[in-house]
Specification:
Blueprint lengths: L1 H22 L23 H16 L5 H17 L6 E7 L2 E7 L4 E9 L13 H11 L1 E6 L9 H17 E2 L2 E2 L4 E7 L1 H15 L7 E5 L11 H4 L8 H8 L3 H12 L21 E6 L5 H13 L4 E6 L12 H18 L9
Parallel strand pairs: 3-4, 3-7, 7-8, 8-9, 9-10
Antiparallel strand pairs: 1-2, 2-4, 5-6
Helix pairs in contact: 1-9, 4-11, 5-6
Length: 361
């Protein structure tokens, strides 16, 4: 009996060690510095943001106890309905891109040859072009560009790789197709938030490696860049992240080996693989990147580490942070969101406005 217990203990210990060795990957603590200086200078949340936060808390309290599948279905519906509730001035045109649902979002001043590929967030399991129309419409306005928002395949019905491939297919397609038909893009911008920020950063690295035409600029709102869950802010900001703290906090607070194993089982890809953790890839030779993150959110250090590593490897990356704001606050109508989009406009203007432009009508 004692021998059996010893053998089992040794086996479990080796399994534990094996998971850490295989899934943990490189140590990125050297990219914790320099720390960003806050772009947002407010002493507290705006009245509008306080109202948004209270609605989030009220909605969370009202969420019924359901089975996992029913809850996911409810959250998907709520996310889409919430996005559709915003009034946008941009024209919306539904299309199909190589069998994938998508939509063009076109502000009145948008040039059809200036294009943005937008990849929505939602934990890889929720969200759609409909849920993110406030963001895509504002991007179309400030960039004078049409936005292709894609409805990539979600988990758990599909493997994580399916969504990655959808983003790649959309990147190829938007280079050669606009709202008026087949034509080459004069300007290409890739953007995304949260999970979509992860997919955007993964996609631009793939485009570089396959020698496709590079994007002219990249914008990532609160991106997840490290699927190994190693960023310090994942733990330090649990209590201040009102959006991810309750849903994501329990996972990162489990033992490391369990968190890594869960990540692998969910994605069916090694968590330290650059396919799902852009931070772990080669970040040289990338287009100019703007990352915005909240100082209060759990994914803050995912953003910090990615930007610091990209700059260390010779790419140009900028990080801008705001205090008090929730994860992807750009998705709401608040002064803080206005400030963020003004900064995005400045970034994009400096990098993409030197090319000819014509108005879409």
């Amino acid at each position: 009996m004692l021998v059996t217990l010893i053998v089992v203990a040794l086996f479990m210990g080796l399994l534990w060690l094996g998971v850490l060795l295989v899934f943990q990957g490189d140590d990125h603590r050297r990219y914790d510095l320099p720390r960003p200086v806050a772009k947002g200078k407010r002493d507290c949340e705006s009245t509008e943001l306080k109202a948004v936060i209270q609605r989030m808390l009220d909605d969370r309290a009202a969420t019924p106890k359901l089975s996992r599948n029913r809850l996911l279905e409810l959250l998907r519906t709520q996310m889409d309905d919430s996005g559709a509730a915003f009034e946008v001035s941009s024209k919306i045109r539904a299309i199909v891109v190589d069998g994938m649902k998508a939509e063009w979002v076109m502000a009145a001043n948008a040039d059809p040859n200036r294009r943005i590929l937008y990849i929505h967030g939602g934990a890889y399991m929720m969200g759609s072009p409909k849920s993110h129309r406030l963001i895509t419409s504002r991007l179309s306005e400030i960039a004078n560009a049409v936005v292709l928002a894609i409805d990539y395949r979600l988990m758990p019905e599909n493997r994580r790789m399916a969504g990655i491939n959808d983003c790649r297919d959309a990147y190829r397609w938007v280079l050669e197709n606009g709202p008026d038909g087949r034509s080459d893009a004069d300007v290409l911008i890739v953007a995304g938030d949260s999970a979509g920020g992860n997919l955007a950063l993964s996609t631009i690295a793939w485009a570089r490696d396959t020698q496709l035409r590079s994007a002219d600029a990249v914008v990532a709102f609160s991106p997840q860049t490290d699927q190994t869950l190693a960023s310090p802010s994942l733990h330090s900001n649990i209590d201040t992240d009102i959006m991810l703290g309750i849903s994501f906090g329990p996972m990162v607070n489990t033992r490391k080996v369990i968190a890594l194993s869960s990540s692998f089982l969910m994605n069916r890809i090694n968590p330290s693989n650059a396919l799902v953790s852009p931070l772990f890839g080669d970040l040289s030779g990338l287009p100019p990147i703007l990352v915005q993150a909240s100082e209060a959110e759990m994914l803050l250090d995912d953003a910090v580490r990615y930007v610091n590593k990209a700059n260390a490897q010779g790419s140009t990356a900028i990080i801008q942070t705001w205090p008090f704001t929730p994860h992807v606050w750009q998705a709401f109508q608040t002064p803080e969101a206005d400030e963020a989009f003004a900064a995005v406009e400045e970034f994009l203007s400096a990098r993409t406005m030197n090319l000819p432009s014509k108005t879409y009508d």
